[in-house]
Design goal:
It is a single chain. The protein is mainly α and 273 residues long. The chain has one domain. The protein is 76% helix and 0% strand. The longest helix is centred in the middle third of the chain and has 29 residues. About 5% of the residues have low confidence.
């Protein structure tokens, strides 16, 4: 790699780390960068997934205050995200490269729609719960299991986003924020902290699957990890993750929702083009 290519991958890692901490879709920066410098697609995807893990962890650390009181929620959802990450990583290795080309933009658009409609849908869910006599906190937050019980479909949807994240990962955060924003009664910033943890775990699990496959040589020479690329992306993503968390935590709900929608639309246009 030339010095210019090394700097390009580092800067792409910083940008991806920042975007992932705030909303997601950082893969749309790093993945095309790797392709542009001549990295084979499968190697690029595998190396990118591993490299972004430290950045996602840094973003989750930056949201540690918002994660207080959400331990039970995280443990429940992590189980489903983990299974989804394994399934998605396996699908990447066994399915034709273009298998999800048609469905990925649709999924991202669905996530955007969920984010836009989240305030109205959340009020509708809360009103239905109130009619059924279920407790709904007056301040709009829910730090116990009640929200998960009201929204039985949330773990299933989180499983689905985990599959998508293990397969490709771009805009996984957009989908998660749409699901959590509607299915869980809590502040948007607290849910963003949960999203960062779930994304980090999915990327880490998918990365472990990729390393195992590469070491065993199960899918040929194309399925390998470039550790120099992993290191460069990781260093940049950690810096970007900490910076992105510092900025993202200060955004009001409306501004955060606007960022999510904007990034999601850019993701769709990029993927389609």
């Amino acid at each position: 790699m030339t010095l210019l290519e090394i700097m390009a991958v580092l800067l792409a890692g910083v940008g991806a780390g920042m975007i992932n901490a705030v909303v997601g879709s950082g893969t749309l920066i790093t993945f095309p960068t790797l392709l542009a410098i001549g990295v084979p697609p499968v190697t690029a995807n595998m190396s990118n997934s591993l490299g972004l893990v430290p950045g996602s962890i840094a973003g989750a650390f930056g949201y540690r205050r918002e994660l207080v009181g959400q331990r039970d929620r995280l443990l429940r959802l992590l189980a489903f995200s983990s299974v989804g990450g394994v399934v998605g990583a396996v699908l990447l290795l066994v399915l034709p490269p273009g298998a999800f080309e048609a469905v990925v933009p649709v999924l991202i658009l669905l996530g955007i729609a969920l984010v836009v409609l989240q305030p109205w849908l959340s009020r509708a869910v809360a009103a239905r719960a109130d009619r059924r006599g279920e407790p709904v906190p007056a301040d709009g937050t829910d730090r116990g299991p009640t929200a998960m019980e009201r929204s039985w479909w949330v773990p299933i949807a989180v499983l689905g986003t985990g599959v998508y994240g293990g397969y490709f990962g771009a805009a996984q955060g957009v989908l998660l924020m749409g699901v959590l924003g509607i299915g869980v009664t809590d502040a948007l910033q607290r849910l963003n902290g949960v999203k960062n943890v779930l994304v980090a775990v999915v990327n880490a699990i998918a990365g472990l699957v990729f390393v195992l496959v590469a070491e065993l040589g199960l899918f040929g020479a194309e399925a390998r990890v470039d550790w120099l690329l992993v290191l460069l992306i990781a260093v940049g993503a950690v810096c970007g993750g900490l910076l992105g968390a510092a900025v993202g935590r200060k955004l009001p709900p409306l501004a955060l929702r606007a960022v999510i929608v904007t990034v999601g639309l850019v993701a769709v246009v990029t993927l389609v083009v």
